[in-house]
Amino acid sequence: IDFEYGWYDHVAMDIGNHWLEWTVNYDFEGYPYYEVRHDDFPTDAQQRLFVKAYLSAATGGVEPTEHEITELVTEANMFTIAAHFMWACWGLMQAGKSEIEFGHAQYATDRMEMYAECKRRFLATGRVGNETE
Fold it and tell me: Which of 10, 87, 92, 102 is the most buried (most CB within 10 A)?
């Protein structure tokens, strides 16, 4: 399952990026035409439920082990860092060429700030989101 653009990617990158998209409202009407809602990042319980369903679907209904769930949750959290960096680069590229009314340069700046914060959290805790349930 590819949640972003239909390209081939690492499973954990797709899932981590999917979770990050929970935190961005692209229906925001004023500049920069999006808003970030950090508190909407899925909780650990939501992440585990999602990964359990994903792995079960990927294996034709075989129940994944707790170890498999934990491993993919950890990898997906790690890949959110890469997703932020990718979207920061995308924003910079779009700022110079896109004719779409969107705060591309601000988006790049915000994503780089989130990249740094996610990296700090992941290195400290192995997670990037809030630990509240």
Answer: 87
Amino acid symbol at 31: Y
pLDDT in tens, 21-47: 999 999 999 999 999 999 999 999 999
Dump the DSSP string for 98-128: --SSS-HHHHHHHHHHHHHHHHHHHHHHS--
Residue 23 Cα distances to 8, 12, 105, angstroms: 23, 17, 18
Q: Name beta bridge partners: 36.
A: 24
Structure tokens belonging to residue 52: 């359990």
For 27, list phi and psi in degrees, rounded to 5: -95, 10
Closest CA to 24 of 97, 100, 109, 107: 107
The answer to whether 15 and 58 are in contact (CB under 8 A) is: no
C-alpha 50/C-alpha 41 separation (Å) is 13
pLDDT in tens, 62-71: 999 999 999 9
